[in-house]
Amino acid sequence: MSFIELILLSCALAMDAFAVSLCKGFSAKTLTLKHYLIVGIYFGGFQALMPALGFLVGVSFSSFIQKIDHWIAFVLLVFIGFKMMKEGFEKESCPSDDGFHFKTMLTLAIATSIDALAVGVSFAFLQVSLTLALFLIGGITFIFCVVALKIGNRFGVYLKSKAELLGGGVLILLGFKILISHLFWA
To answer: What is the DSSP letter of 92?
Structure first.
C-alpha cells in the first residue's frame, strides 16, 4: 500500500470520529484546550490502537487464509464503506450530551474505531508499513477531530452525513483497488 493510499485510508477511517466530533462540538456550549485534547487523544488513540489489534489477529491466521487474503481485504473494506455510506444517508441527529467524561468518550472512541479493527486485519495480508500506517491513522484522526470539534461548535452538524459518505466511498474504492491489483497485476 502506497503512502498516498495510507493517507486516503487514514482520512476515510477518521470520518466516523470526525462526525462524532462535529456532534460534540455542536452540543458543547464552550470549548477549552482540554476538550480538544480529550477528543483528539481518545479518537486518534483508538483509531491507531484498533488496527494494531486487528493486525495481530490477521497475522495469527495468515497461514490459513493466504490464498484468499485479497478477497478478505476487499470484503472488509467494501462492507465498512457501505456501512459508513448508509449511516451518512440516515437522518440521525446528534445526542444533546455535551459531556467529555471518561465513560462517554471511551464508548464513543471504541464505537468509531471498530472499522479500523477490521482494516487492521487486512493489513496482515497487504504490504503495509504498520508503524507508518498507525502513525498516519492516529495523527490524521487527531487532527480531523480537533478541527471537527471547532467546526461543530461554530456551524452545527450538517456536515456529518457528507463526511460519512466521503469516508465510505474512499474505503470502497480502496477495496476495489486491492482486489483488482491482486487479480490482474499480482
So the answer is: -
